[in-house]
Structures
1.
Amino acid sequence: MISVDVRSKSYGDVPVLQDIQFDVEQGQTVAILGPSGIGKSTLLRLIAGIDPKFEGTVSRPKNMAIVFQEPTLLLWRSVFDNIQLIHPELSESAVREALSEVGLADKADLFPGQLSLGQQRRLSLARGFAGNPDLLIMDEPFVSLDEKTADEMLTLTERLISKTQPATIFVTHDTTEAARLATQILTLDGQPATLKIKETLK
Ligand code: ADP
Ligand code: MG
C-alpha cells in the first residue's frame, strides 16, 4: 500500500502544496486532476521520492516505475537496450515480450530517434511495466498525441494495468482520460485534498 501524507511543500518562500493525504491499494488507479501550475508534477515527485524536501511522509514500495510526460529514452541505445539497461534482471525473451506487448516487436534494433512520438511513448510505457512495478507513477503520459494515438495509448495502458495490477497514480488534465482509467480522483485546487470516488466525476 502507498500512503501519502504531505503536510506542506514550498519552493523557497513560495508554498505549493498543503495537507494532502491519501492511500492507494494495489490494483487501484488514482487520477490527479487540476489546473496547470497547481502542483501536480510536484506532488508526483514527492510521492516518487525524487524530491525529498517537504514536510510530511510518504511510504512507497521499492519496485516503482515512473513514466514521464516526455519519453526519457536513451537516444544512443537501441530500443531493446532501452528496456534491458533499466531492467538488467530480464532475460532477452522477457525484453522481447515487453516490446511485443506494446507493438514494437519488430523495432528492437532501431534507435529511439527512428521511432514516431507515439512509438516512443509506447516504449516508455513498456519500460515502465517491464519490471512488474508495485507502484506506477505517470505524469500526463498522453499529452500532445493525436486523438487516435492517445486513444490507443489509453487502451494499452488499461490492458497493462489490469495485467500487472500495480497501484497507479497518474496526472492528467483530461477528465475523459481520468474517468476511463481511474478508480479514484484527487483534485488539486489549492485547498486540502483527499480522494474522492470516481462516480463524483461523471
Ligand atoms: P503542475 O504540474 O500542476 O502544472 P508543477 O508542480 O509543475 O505544477 O508546479 C507548481 C508550481 O511550482 C508552479 O508555480 C511552478 O512554477 C513551481 N515550481 C515547479 N518546480 C519548481 C522548482 N524546481 N523550483 C521552483 N518552483 C517550481
Ligand atoms: Mg505538470
2.
Amino acid sequence: MRVIIADNATEVANIAAKKVASVFRQTRAGGRTPVFGLATGSSPIGTYEALAELRKAGEFDTDGIVAFALDEYVGLDYSHPESYHAVIHRTVTEPLGLEHKNVHVPDGLAADLRAACESFEDAITEAGGVDLQLLGIGTNGHIGFNEPTSSLNSRTRFKTLAPQTRVDNARFFDSLDQVPLHCLTQGIGTILDARQVVLVAQGEAKAAAVAAMIEGPLSSMCPASALQLHRDALVVIDRPAAKRLQLLDYYRHINRYQPAELEKY
Ligand code: GLP
C-alpha cells in the first residue's frame, strides 16, 4: 500500500485526479477503454472536480468510459437528490461528460434485489473489470457500504447500514429518520478485484479509521484494512487524517526518496 500525505484537501484531490488520469491514459495505451469505479460521499468530490479540470486541459478523454458506482440506498427514489443515482449523475456523469448509459449504479429500487446485485456483478465482468476504483472511507472503516464484520470476500449484496453510518450521513438529509436503513453495495471481494485502487480521506474525523486501515491488523472489524491485500493500492490523505499513523515519518521518507524513474504517484 502506497501512502501519500498531502498538505491539504486540495492537494489530496489533485494527486488523486492525476493518478486517475494517468491510469486512464495507460489503459488506453494498452488498447482498452478504461472502466472507472466510482465512490460517493463527500471525500471524492474534490477529486472529481480536479478530474474535470484535467479533462478540460486535455490530459485525458472520457470517450466510451464505462463506470460502476460502489453502492446505493435501498428504497430511495432516484429523483431524491441524495440517492446515489442522483449524486453520481450530478458529481461525475455530467461534469466528466460520461455517457449516461455507460454509468452503472446498483438498483436499490429493484423488485428482486438479489438478482439486481448479480446482474451488477455480471456487468462489471462483461466490461472487463474495473481499471481504477476510487474510494473514500467511513469513520468506522467502511469502504462502499461494507460495514464492520463484512466478509472480506464479499460480492455485491444487500446490507443493513451501521447506526454510525446513518448518523454520519444524516447531514445529507433533513433528519436521521430519512436516512435509509438498507443499501446495496459492492463487496470487499468486488473492490479488491479492481486493477488499481485509490482511496482518499481528509480530516481528523477519519484519522482512526485511516490508521486502522493502513497499520491495524487485517480484520473485518475495519473493512478498509482489506486493502492491505491489494497489489496496487494508493492512499492519499491530508495531514489531519494522517494524525494517528505510527509510521508517518516513514511514509514521508518513501515519498521523498521515490526514485525519479518510477512514476511519482
Ligand atoms: C458513505 C459512502 C462511502 C464513503 C463513506 C464516507 O456513506 N457509502 O462510499 O466513502 O461513506 O463518506 P464521506 O466521504 O462523506 O465522509
